[in-house]
């Protein structure tokens, strides 16, 4: 959903932070991205097990798409 935002954040890190801590900031960014790929399906899987959970997951995804547009 947020791939183009990741490119903008990487450019922001390169422009704003000094060279000596850029690697730390890029590492933090990649860690957060990795956690989101791990936790996102886990949370969505549990959400779909509750009554009406699939509709809730679709609604949240739609809201995120609108916010990101």
From TrEMBL:
Protein name (database record): Major facilitator superfamily (MFS) profile domain-containing protein
Q: Lineage, please?
A: Eukaryota, Metazoa, Ecdysozoa, Arthropoda, Hexapoda
């Amino acid at each position: 959903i947020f791939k183009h935002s990741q490119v903008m954040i990487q450019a922001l890190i390169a422009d704003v932070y000094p060279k000596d801590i850029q690697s730390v900031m890029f590492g933090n960014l990649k860690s957060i991205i990795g956690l989101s790929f791990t936790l996102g399906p886990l949370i969505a899987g549990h959400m779909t097990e509750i009554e009406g959970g699939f509709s809730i997951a679709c609604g949240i995804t739609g809201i995120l798409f609108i916010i990101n547009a």
